[in-house]
Each structure stands twice: as structure tokens, then as C-alpha cells.
């Protein structure tokens, strides 16, 4: 690996810029609210792009293009499900959650919100939801570190151990120093880089394969079923792929963006920006994998790496079709996708440990400076545990991403959604929803029942548990009063 390698230089410049943003954010971080939610100061553009970038990890530029390359358009159902789920999340949850968290003790985290919303004096709701966050997100963080390591390993020929630390170090640095503002500002840069890569690459591949007609003929010649959306699919298979969209209602790192918006008025504009970004990115991702079929069937002599690992289709197309400097920028987009999601996950874990355990149970009167530094140390602690989990190059942690997504979607999704639209939900209903959702996902996954993605039964059973258990009791007058005040505030300002 030569130091003059344009791709290496591009990566170094990119990483240095992200760390610099972290130090800029450091100057705006004065208390725990600043560190965890940026002082609720995000405008619509940063809210929109940060929510998008924190959602789309390395799978956007590696996993999904690879699946489309292997199987054709039948794999695109997941993209449709994600778009529908994300839109409904922006429409029904974003604005209401922003207002409800403010009216319920100015909550900074989801466990904090659940505890205040349902007047849980026992601390049980806070503890259970914080444990769910820590367990699933530590696994999630490890998968992000593995993805980053694979990118460095394949791009620069590093050993897995070196690549592991190289991929994780920059993300840890700017999250540790700058907190939520650093994560949100870097997410905005990373989202811009990702959409640039995913619009430019399919256009250049299309030109390299002779235009639309020639490309489509080549794809059809390879396998006519590549155009068939129903190829090798079943009703349950399509529902399972579409079911990924349900996960959005319960992802703490995405919901944190809604909570951090400067006002409800920003949400509508943020929704339009975020959904446009998401549709263009997912469309570009599908196009990269689809047009890649035509390119590599026309150039079998360079298809070896993609044949060996179909998830390398974007990486190989970037290397083959672009000037090394441009290729470096495009490959940085994969790093951006990994870093943006990993940084959000580290921060959510840190906030759960700091706000929901340290401040609540150990140091109720801790100063803001102390809490910010505890938050920083928690980022470091979670990152080191995640690196240790990712250290085995043969680990299967990447396969757990869909499991973690289902876990959050089923355990938190119904609780968050119903809590912002139904005033009669109770504390016991919330507890039942979290436990039933999480347990259903674990049991369903273990027995692989009906071949159905576990998030769907988990979401349904958790919703039913919330409704029926809430009906057995009644919310307090204070809970109803705060809900009504928040709903009135939302309707006046949306």
C-alpha cells in the first residue's frame, strides 16, 4: 500500500474532516442535553439528513446492491417496505414524539420518556428499556465495526486486526469529543456523500454498458427473471421483506433525531427532505446492483471479486469505472454509511448508561460537566466492548443486524407509536408491550415459524398486549392532562 495511493489520501482527508467537525461541536457542548440531543437545536435539513444517514448503514452500499446483483428486482421489496415505514414514522411519530418528550419531563432518551410519560415510580420501565437498548445496540455497534473493517481490509490490503481499529477509531473520536451535534453534523456530510455516490455510479455504469436499451437486453440475456419482481418469492416472503418498514417506529437512534428537532414546525420540511433523499438513495442502490449484472456479464475478466463476494459489486464498479481520486470519494461513501450509523448507536448506548443508570440510580445530583464526561467515557466503554465482540474475523455478528432491527421494532415500535396517539395507554400496557415484543422476536427467531420475519408477529402481539393490558387499568389524571397539552401544542404548531 503506497502512501501516494489516491484512495488512501481521500480516506485520510475525509476522516480528518469528520474529526474536525467533532472538535467544532465540542465547543457547543455545555451540558448533558447538548451532548445527548444537541440542546434540541437541529434545523429541518440536519434533522432530515441525520435521520436518513443514521438509518442507512453499510448494507445500503454493500448488502442491498449485492442482493440485487445476485437475484434481480425480486430483492427490491425490502426497499419498498423501508420507504413506506419511514414515511409513516415521519408522519405519525416524528412531530408528536418531539412534543411529548418535551411535555414529559423534557426527556432526553426513550427510557426517560417512557418513565415520565407513564409516571413509573418503580424505575422498572426505565431499567428494562435501557437493558434492551444496551444489549441490541452493542451487537449493532459490533456489526458496524466489522463492516468498516471489511472495507479497510479489502481496499487497502490491511490485516483484519489493523482494519478493525482503523475503521473504528475515527468514529469513536468524533462521537467521544462532540457528542450529538458532532454526530448530526457529520451525518449531514455523510448523507450528502452517500447520495452523490448512489446517483453518479449507476449513471456511469449505464453509460459504460451502452445505454438503457443495451443494458436491459444484457440483463435479460443473463436471466429474463431478473426483471420479475415475484421471482422465487412467496406471499410470506414478500410480507417479510416489506415488514422491515415496521422497524422504524422503534429504532432509538432514528427517534433521537425527532426528539432533537428545534421545533415541530421543522418536522414537515424535514420529512420531505428525508424521504426524497431516501428514495433517491434506495433507487440508486437498486440500480447499482441491477446495472452491475450487465457490466460484469460483458466484462467477465474482471468479475472475479464480485463472483467471490457479490456484496463487493459497488466497490468493484467504483474502482473499475472511475479515476482513482473519484473512486476514493465514492468508496468513502461506504465508510460514511458505516460511520454515521455506528456513531449514532454509540451515542444512544452512552445516553442510556449516563441518563438512565448513572444519573438516575447513582448520582442524582451530578453536575452537567460530570455527566458529559461520564457520557464520553460510556462511548469509549461500549466501543471497546463492540470491538472485542467484532475481533473474531469469522464471527457472525453481521447476521444479527436483522435480529436487532426486529428486536427494537417489536419491543419499542408499538410502545412509541401508541404512546403518542392514544391517551389511555398505561404503564402496565407499556411494560407488557416491551416484554411481549422482545420475547416474541426471540422465540419466533429461534423456531423460525412459518418462515415469517419475526418483527411482524412481534409487532402485532406487542400492540395487542398494550391495548388489552391498558384496558385493564386507567391512566392517571396527570398522564391524560400532559398528553392533551402535548397534543394541543402539536396541532397548533405542526
Automatic annotation (TrEMBL):
<keyword id="KW-0739">Sodium transport</keyword>
<dbReference type="GO" id="GO:0015824">
    <property type="term" value="P:proline transport"/>
</dbReference>
<feature type="transmembrane region" description="Helical">
    <location>
        <begin position="371"/>
        <end position="391"/>
    </location>
</feature>
<dbReference type="InterPro" id="IPR038377">
    <property type="entry name" value="Na/Glc_symporter_sf"/>
</dbReference>
<dbReference type="InterPro" id="IPR001734">
    <property type="entry name" value="Na/solute_symporter"/>
</dbReference>
<comment type="similarity">
    <text>Belongs to the sodium:solute symporter (SSF) (TC 2.A.21) family.</text>
</comment>
<dbReference type="InterPro" id="IPR050277">
    <property type="entry name" value="Sodium:Solute_Symporter"/>
</dbReference>
<keyword id="KW-0812">Transmembrane</keyword>
<feature type="transmembrane region" description="Helical">
    <location>
        <begin position="164"/>
        <end position="183"/>
    </location>
</feature>
<dbReference type="GO" id="GO:0031402">
    <property type="term" value="F:sodium ion binding"/>
</dbReference>
<comment type="function">
    <text>Catalyzes the sodium-dependent uptake of extracellular L-proline.</text>
</comment>
<dbReference type="GO" id="GO:0005886">
    <property type="term" value="C:plasma membrane"/>
</dbReference>
<dbReference type="InterPro" id="IPR011851">
    <property type="entry name" value="Na/Pro_symporter"/>
</dbReference>
<keyword id="KW-0769">Symport</keyword>
<keyword id="KW-0472">Membrane</keyword>
<keyword id="KW-1133">Transmembrane helix</keyword>
<keyword id="KW-0915">Sodium</keyword>
<feature type="transmembrane region" description="Helical">
    <location>
        <begin position="76"/>
        <end position="94"/>
    </location>
</feature>
<protein>
    <recommendedName>
        <fullName>Sodium/proline symporter</fullName>
    </recommendedName>
</protein>
<dbReference type="Pfam" id="PF00474">
    <property type="entry name" value="SSF"/>
</dbReference>
<keyword id="KW-1003">Cell membrane</keyword>
<feature type="transmembrane region" description="Helical">
    <location>
        <begin position="325"/>
        <end position="350"/>
    </location>
</feature>
<dbReference type="GO" id="GO:0005298">
    <property type="term" value="F:proline:sodium symporter activity"/>
</dbReference>
<feature type="transmembrane region" description="Helical">
    <location>
        <begin position="234"/>
        <end position="256"/>
    </location>
</feature>
<dbReference type="GO" id="GO:0015193">
    <property type="term" value="F:L-proline transmembrane transporter activity"/>
</dbReference>
<feature type="transmembrane region" description="Helical">
    <location>
        <begin position="6"/>
        <end position="26"/>
    </location>
</feature>
<feature type="transmembrane region" description="Helical">
    <location>
        <begin position="429"/>
        <end position="444"/>
    </location>
</feature>
<keyword id="KW-0406">Ion transport</keyword>
<feature type="transmembrane region" description="Helical">
    <location>
        <begin position="124"/>
        <end position="152"/>
    </location>
</feature>
<dbReference type="InterPro" id="IPR018212">
    <property type="entry name" value="Na/solute_symporter_CS"/>
</dbReference>
<feature type="transmembrane region" description="Helical">
    <location>
        <begin position="195"/>
        <end position="219"/>
    </location>
</feature>
<feature type="transmembrane region" description="Helical">
    <location>
        <begin position="277"/>
        <end position="298"/>
    </location>
</feature>
<keyword id="KW-0813">Transport</keyword>
<feature type="transmembrane region" description="Helical">
    <location>
        <begin position="403"/>
        <end position="422"/>
    </location>
</feature>
<keyword id="KW-0029">Amino-acid transport</keyword>
<keyword id="KW-0997">Cell inner membrane</keyword>
<feature type="transmembrane region" description="Helical">
    <location>
        <begin position="450"/>
        <end position="469"/>
    </location>
</feature>
Amino acid at each position: 500500500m503506497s502512501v501516494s495511493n489516491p484512495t488512501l489520501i481521500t480516506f485520510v482527508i475525509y476522516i480528518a474532516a469528520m474529526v474536525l467537525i467533532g472538535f467544532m461541536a465540542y465547543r457547543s457542548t455545555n451540558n448533558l442535553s447538548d451532548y445527548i440531543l444537541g440542546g434540541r437545536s437541529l434545523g429541518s435539513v440536519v434533522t432530515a439528513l441525520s435521520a436518513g444517514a443514521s438509518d442507512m448503514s453499510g448494507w445500503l452500499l454493500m448488502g442491498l446492491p449485492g442482493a440485487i446483483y445476485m437475484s434481480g428486482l425480486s430483492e427490491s421489496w425490502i426497499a419498498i417496505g423501508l420507504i413506506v415505514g419511514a414515511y409513516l414514522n415521519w408522519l405519525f411519530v416524528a412531530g408528536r414524539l418531539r412534543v411529548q418528550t418535551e411535555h414529559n419531563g423534557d426527556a432526553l432518551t426513550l427510557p426517560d420518556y417512557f418513565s415520565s410519560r407513564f409516571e413509573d415510580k418503580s424505575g422498572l420501565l426505565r431499567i428494562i428499556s435501557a437493558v434492551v437498548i444496551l444489549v441490541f445496540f452493542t451487537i449493532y455497534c459490533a456489526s458496524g465495526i466489522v463492516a468498516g473493517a471489511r472495507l479497510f481490509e479489502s481496499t487497502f490490503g490491511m490485516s483484519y486486526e489493523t482494519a478493525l481499529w482503523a475503521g473504528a477509531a475515527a468514529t469513536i473520536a468524533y462521537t467521544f469529543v462532540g457528542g450529538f451535534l458532532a454526530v448530526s453534523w457529520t451525518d449531514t456530510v455523510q448523507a450528502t456523500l452517500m447520495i452523490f455516490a448512489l446517483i453518479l455510479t449507476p449513471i456511469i455504469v449505464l453509460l459504460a454498458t451502452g445505454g438503457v436499451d443495451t443494458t436491459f437486453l444484457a440483463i435479460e440475456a443473463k436471466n429474463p427473471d431478473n426483471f420479475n419482481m415475484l421471482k422465487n418469492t412467496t406471499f410470506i416472503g414478500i410480507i417479510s421483506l416489506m415488514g422491515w418498514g415496521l422497524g422504524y417506529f422503534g429504532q432509538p437512534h432514528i427517534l433521537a433525531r425527532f426528539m432533537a428537532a428545534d421545533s415541530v414546525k421543522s418536522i414537515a420540511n424535514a420529512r420531505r427532505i428525508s424521504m426524497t433523499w431516501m428514495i433517491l438513495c434506495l433507487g440508486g442502490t437498486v440500480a447499482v446492483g441491477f446495472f452491475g449484472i450487465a457490466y460484469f456479464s460483458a466484462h467477465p475478466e474482471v468479475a472475479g471479486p464480485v463472483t467471490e463476494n457479490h456484496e463487493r459489486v459497488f466497490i468493484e464498479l467504483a474502482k473499475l469505472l472511475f479515476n482513482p481520486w473519484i473512486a476514493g470519494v465514492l468508496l468513502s461513501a461506504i465508510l460514511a454509511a458505516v460511520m454515521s450509523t455506528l456513531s449514532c448507536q454509540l451515542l444512544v448506548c452512552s445516553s442510556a448508561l449516563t441518563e438512565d443508570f448513572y444519573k438516575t440510580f447513582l448520582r442524582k445530583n451530578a453536575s452537567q460537566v460530570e455527566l458529559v464526561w461520564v457520557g464520553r467515557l460510556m462511548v469509549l466503554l461500549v466501543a471497546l466492548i463492540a470491538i472485542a465482540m467484532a475481533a473474531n474475523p469469522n464471527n457472525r455478528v453481521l447476521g444479527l443486524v436483522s435480529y436487532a432491527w426486529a428486536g427494537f421494532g417489536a419491543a419499542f415500535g408499538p410502545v412509541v407509536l401508541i404512546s403518542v396517539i392514544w391517551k389511555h395507554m398505561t404503564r402496565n400496557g407499556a411494560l407488557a408491550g416491551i416484554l411481549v415484543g422482545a420475547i416474541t422476536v426471540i422465540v419466533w427467531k429461534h423456531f423460525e415459524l412459518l418462515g415469517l420475519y419475526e418483527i411482524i408477529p412481534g409487532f402485532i402481539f406487542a400492540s395487542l398486549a398494550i391495548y388489552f393490558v391498558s384496558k385493564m387499568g386507567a391512566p392517571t389524571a396527570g398522564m391524560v392532562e400532559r398528553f392533551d397539552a402535548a397534543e394541543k401544542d402539536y396541532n397548533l404548531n405542526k
